Amino acid sequence: MLPPTSVSQATQMLVDEPGAAKVLAGGSDILVQLKAGLAEPDLLVDIKHIDGIHDITPEDGGYRIGAAVSGATLGEHEGVKAL
């Protein structure tokens, strides 16, 4: 199965999965859970190929932060730090 390239595709994959599904963005949280046996999803939906998922963009006096933006990237972003 190919990874989704849009939010609507990812959402549809999650809706269509009859079992447990998890989102894989950067991987750190879910991979730790998988290795520890704390999560056993039937489907992992990898969202890293969705446009904008790694972006921090100005919006309505603040910023829209994509689901795959790392904490380090967020902390280094000049605009976010200025808020």
Overview of the molecule:
The protein is α+β, with helices and mostly antiparallel strands and 83 residues long. The protein has 2 domains: 1-51, Uridine Diphospho-n-acetylenolpyruvylglucosamine Reductase, domain 2 (2-Layer Sandwich); 54-83, no CATH class. The protein is 34% helix and 19% strand. The chain has 4 helices and 4 strands; from the N terminus they run H-E-H-E-E-E-H-H. It has helices at residues 7-16, 28-35, 71-76, 78-81, and strands at residues 21-24, 43-46, 56-59, 62-65. A two-stranded parallel ribbon has the order 1-2. A two-stranded antiparallel ribbon has the order 3-4. It is globular, with a radius of gyration of 15 Å. The relative contact order is 0.18. The model has no long low-confidence stretch (mean pLDDT 90).
